[in-house]
């Protein structure tokens, strides 16, 4: 395993659509392991393959209950609303107030190529939505409803910074 360099905006790979994984190979499994190691080292809650320069539909998420890796993830259902401060490892100096669904169902493949469906609520739901957005070339700042609700991290008080989730 290896820690990979996290791509930061304005790198164009962050704004492009990732390609579906046709076959889960040793290279895809290594990418996923490297992504987990990179995410934990950052530290973050989630990471999408484009954030490490791979234009593949692979995400990793750990919202505190253990790692989840999904290949070709799709959000199948979403309900409710939550608003929270969100940051991104690829936009390290910005945070914003983002409205997301409170509960989601995500399906994809595990690293063995088997179909998997995962439900998430709260932070896990937020992380899934954030990472799937990355696969579609969408950054969290696009989801901010009010541009006045985006701040530079150095402008936030320490007490508020603790509430920011870096996904």
Tell me the domain tally: 1
Helical amount: 10-25%
The appropriate CATH architecture is: Alpha-Beta Complex
Shape: globular
CATH topology: Peptide Deformylase
Instruction: Please identify which CATH superfamily we are dealing with.
Output: Peptide deformylase
Note the total helix count: 4
Assigned CATH class: Alpha Beta
Indicate the mean pLDDT: 94
- Through-space gap between termini: 21 Å
Structural summary, described in words:
There is one protein chain. The longest helix has 16 residues, at 26-41. The mean pLDDT is 94. The chain has a single domain (12-166), classed as Alpha-Beta Complex (Peptide Deformylase), CATH 3.90.45.10. The chain is globular and about 45 Å long. The chain has four helices and nine strands. It has 167 residues and is of the alpha+beta class. It has helices spanning 26-41, 123-135, 140-143, 158-161; strands spanning 46-48, 58-61, 68-79, 82-88, 91-100, 103-109, 115-121, 150-152, 165-166.
């Amino acid at each position: 395993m290896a820690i990979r360099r996290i791509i930061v905006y304005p790198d164009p790979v962050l704004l492009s659509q990732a390609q579906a994984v046709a076959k889960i190979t040793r290279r895809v499994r290594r990418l996923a392991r490297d992504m987990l190691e990179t995410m934990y080292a950052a530290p973050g809650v989630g990471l999408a393959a484009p954030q490490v320069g791979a234009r593949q539909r692979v995400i990793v998420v750990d919202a505190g209950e253990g790692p989840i890796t999904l290949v070709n993830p799709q959000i199948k259902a979403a309900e409710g609303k939550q608003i929270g401060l969100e940051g991104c490892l690829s936009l390290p100096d910005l945070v914003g107030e983002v409205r997301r669904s409170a509960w989601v169902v995500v399906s994809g493949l595990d690293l063995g190529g088997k179909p998997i469906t995962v439900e998430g609520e709260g932070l896990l739901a937020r992380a899934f939505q954030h990472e799937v957005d990355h696969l579609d070339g969408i950054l969290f700042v696009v989801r901010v409803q009010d541009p006045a609700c985006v701040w530079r991290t150095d402008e936030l008080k320490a007490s508020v910074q603790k509430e920011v989730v870096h996904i």
